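Methods, example record. To illustrate the input and output format used throughout this study, we show the complete record for Glucose 1-dehydrogenase. The sequence lines were provided to the predictor; the line carrying structure tokens was produced by it.
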Amino acid sequence: MKLEGKIAVVTGSSKGIGAGIAKALGAQGATVIVNYASSQRDADAVVAQIIENGGTAFAVQADMSLAADVVRLFETVKAKYGTLDVLVNNAGVAVFEMIDDLTEEAFHKQFNLNVLGYLLAVREAVKLLGPKGSVINISSILSTDPYLASSVYSATKGAVDTLTLALARELGPRGVRVNSILPGHTNTPATDGNFAGELGEKLLAGTPLGRFGEPEDIAPLAVFLASEDSHWVTGESIRASGGVRGVGY
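The corresponding predicted structure is encoded as:
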């Protein structure tokens, strides 16, 4: 039980990679706060699975792009536990469109959640994180290998990797580590149908391990970064992609 007694917040964890991470942290003994914006039923299902497997969890609604919601989330954690050990910044949104179709709305929607939301969460989390605290930012291989029509989304993930390093340097003196995980092509509700046809064949051909990822492939890396096993790891952006280098289109 690498995380026994730890308190962990996982944002956007009602489904997909976030849900996989929440369940993995719970299985290793952490008490998990399952955050969701709108999918209460899915969040409750994740909580139920963690509890069924002997863990402790509860769900908290908060839109991580809204400062007031972020503050309320961490105030809830403070009121209930008074401390925090792990923050997994996972809540995100992607809008894929060519530059000819770029809108301010799509830009702000992605940056407000994918970047500002991460920063707001860290701002509130550091009030509770003590020495040996861990912040894990979920980025993407698109931060270095952008898809066609992904200019804004890829830019948000590039920002995540940069703020990860900046915050690692800022928070290191407090004993708080900050790292990011860059998932590759991963099967989630958000990517359902995206890997079909010719595109899927190209993506699969460029994946040395020969398959698309699953949330369960990403979760063990989050457990490692949350645990003392990674006590000398900070400021790193770690790919979990099955070996993908370049998307090929």
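Annotations derived from this record:
The first helix runs from residue 16 to 27.
The chain has one domain: 7-239.
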